[in-house]
Amino acid sequence: MSTRPTSALKVSAGGVSSHGASPHGASPHGASWRRVSPWHLLLAPLALAFALPLVWLLLSSVMTNAEINRFPPALWPDGIDLDGYRYVLGNAMFPRWFANSLIVASVAVASNLLLGSLGGYAFARMRFAGSRVLLGLMLATMVIPFQLTMIPTFLVMKWLGLIDTLGALIVPSLVTPFAVFLFRQFFLTLPREIEEAAWIDGCSRLRVLFSIVMPLARPALATVAVLTFLTTWNDLSWPLIAVNHDTQYTLQLGLTTFQGQHHARWSAVMAGNVVTVLPVLVAFLLAQKTFVQSLTSSGLKG
To answer: What is the pTM of this model?
Structure first.
């Protein structure tokens, strides 16, 4: 008489399988190992290297000035000290700078989503005289360094009477060539049959764009929104030129002056940097999936 092994067949929800094996005959441990790419051995240390400055910034913001100035430096705070955050948030100008940056970045994001999608849809779906030449000229402006356009932009803003106002920071960022180009590339990946069916039903181009195309363009919308927010929020060069009064400072410009005035209070400086970096991290983490999806789907197509 033969005896059955203890690892007898078991009936599971996915079908009949042996003990320790998956329904498809493969070990779950082997499947998990197959998902680990050799690239992870390179990317994991790189990710750690990029994360270390942020971790150090966060830890330093809850240290005392004595701990920050200690030599050798303390790698971990003895306790959580929030005096730096209290000092920063108690500064009368810091909330104003934060609000200015939020206003400028929000208007820039909204205008780039609206105007960029209109321009991108026109280049992707409409054929008009000189469209390719106009597209090429627009893309050529992306390689022009900011230093060459700085003075002409300043003169235009002065002629409009916007110098030393938030308008001088908003108007140059209302629409960017990158936003138009990215929307164009994404719209080219969408099948025309969806739009043609709507045209047969009597929809106008604008209605097709906003009712049919835009709901399908969420990855592109998220990408443009995140990159525009990041660029506008972190901009220092143009606010340094366009505004002079501290009530019109953005957070980056205000933080620069704050560091110069409070270089002895490193805990407050670190806390101010945390407040500055946090919105960008939150925006990217919220849109991470759609951001990657857009970069992989909107390739350089004709």
So the answer is: 0.76
